[in-house]
Specification:
- It contains no helices and 29 strands.
- The protein is mostly beta strands.
- The chain has a single domain, classed as YVTN repeat-like/Quinoprotein amine dehydrogenase (Methylamine Dehydrogenase, Chain H, 7 Propeller), CATH 2.130.10.10.
- The strands form 7 sheets. Strands 1-29-2-3-4 form a 5-stranded antiparallel β-sheet, with no helix packed on it. A 4-stranded antiparallel β-sheet has the order 5-6-7-8, with no helix packed on it. Strands 9-10-11-12 form a 4-stranded antiparallel β-sheet, with no helix packed on it.
- The protein starts with a strand and ends with a strand.
């Protein structure tokens, strides 16, 4: 069985377009380049260590990669897929199925898709109801990605015409058990759940329309506080730090990564990034924080203790999603317009190689096999 080792490092947004009123509403993965066809093994592929998965809106939707040799093992499609709604390294993995999300732009509905990572087949779906935009799963620094009440929190983004909504799902029954609809939660751009240093479980949501970050009590579902960010900064995505002490918020318009205190949401520091910061991820030991970009060609590496930039690693077009290898020696970044995944050596902070794919990646995820 696969065991989740995400370290907060895999539905799709490629070439994200930031607006003043909503998070990116279109997650199409497009590419102007072509790649050499990659042979796919006919036998059942297995690996002894980490396995990397990339996700695309175009066929093949799924690519399975041996993260020890950086070779493509298998590809597959998701039946009846209209559009993946989001897939970053913070998605929930239950040990067998990776929870993905998809949406229908015409019907303005969304759903969860449960993907068996061994078979690369869909084991089930859950209708999330009306939602005009993206879907995000919050797992944060929680053990196995579940709250102490055994719940998975999902954010439905919403837009100008429809407020964002938080949905709580029972992973055992895979049914919706509660919904949190708050008038101040206008646009739920992302979601993160973490246990803070005070032992309280909080749900964090960036609100791009309000230029604010909010947090909710994971047990009572009540809104705790809303903290305003600089006007026009457009807090777009967020990731909770592994130690639960801070929340890293990517300010899409301002080009900064704001580090907030997880308890008070007060700003500790705003770190300059490139254009269109998208997702923050962390090294397995928590020493480094990584920020991907949709409008810049590099990945920003930050020392989590000093909050100083160590380097910017040139990667290629739109390295918006990242995943850290469990050995800490490598960091993976999708390169959307090159149909590739860049392999960054964390000793040299340079791209060591690129894994060519048959479709433009918009999401990434990494797991390892248990001994």
């Amino acid at each position: 069985m696969l065991k989740n080792i995400k370290y907060l490092t895999g539905f799709l947004i490629a070439g994200l377009l930031f607006s003043l009123v909503a998070c990116s509403g279109d997650t199409t993965s497009t590419s102007t380049s072509t790649s050499t066809p990659i042979p796919v093994p006919t036998s059942d592929p297995t690996t002894s260590g980490a396995t990397l998965y990339t996700f695309s809106n175009t066929s093949p939707h799924i690519t399975k990669i041996d993260a020890e040799t950086n070779t493509v093992l298998q590809t597959a499609d998701i039946p009846d897929l209209v559009r993946l709604a989001w897939n970053d390294d913070g998605n929930y993995f239950d040990g067998t199925d990776l929870w993905l999300a998809a949406r229908d732009n015409v019907l303005k509905t969304s759903e969860l898709i449960f993907l068996n990572l061994e078979a690369l087949s869909v084991s089930g779906r859950l209708d999330l109801g009306s939602n005009p935009a993206n879907v995000y799963l919050g797992v944060g620094n929680l053990k196995d990605g579940l709250t102490s009440d055994g719940e998975v929190w999902v954010a439905l983004q919403g837009n100008m015409d429809q407020a964002g909504e938080l949905v709580i799902v029972d992973p055992k029954t895979r049914e919706i058990i509660d919904r949190v609809v708050d008038s101040v939660n206008q646009i739920a751009c992302d979601i993160g759940v973490a246990v803070g240093p005070d032992g309280v479980e909080r749900v964090f949501v960036p609100n791009q329309k309000m230029d604010a970050v909010q947090n909710f009590d994971a047990k009572s579902r009540a809104l705790i506080t809303t903290v305003t960010q600089p006007e026009g900064s457009m807090p777009f995505m967020l990731t909770t730090a592994p130690d639960g002490k801070s929340v890293w918020v990517q300010d899409g318009k301002a080009g900064t990564n704001s580090v907030l205190d997880a308890v008070t949401l007060e700003t500790i520091k705003r770190i300059p990034t490139g254009a269109g910061p998208v997702v923050a991820s962390f090294s397995p030991d928590g020493k480094y924080g990584y920020v991907g970009h949709s409008k810049s060609s590099f990945v920003t590496v930050v020392d989590t203790q000093t909050l100083e930039i160590i380097t910017n690693v040139e990667v290629g077009s739109s390295p918006s999603k990242l995943a850290a290898h469990p050995n800490g020696k490598y960091l993976y970044a999708i390169v959307t317009k090159e149909n590739a995944v860049a392999v960054i050596n964390t000793n040299t902070w340079a791209v060591e190689s690129k894994i060519q794919l048959d479709s433009s990646p918009g999401g990434i995820y990494i797991v390892t096999k248990s001994e």
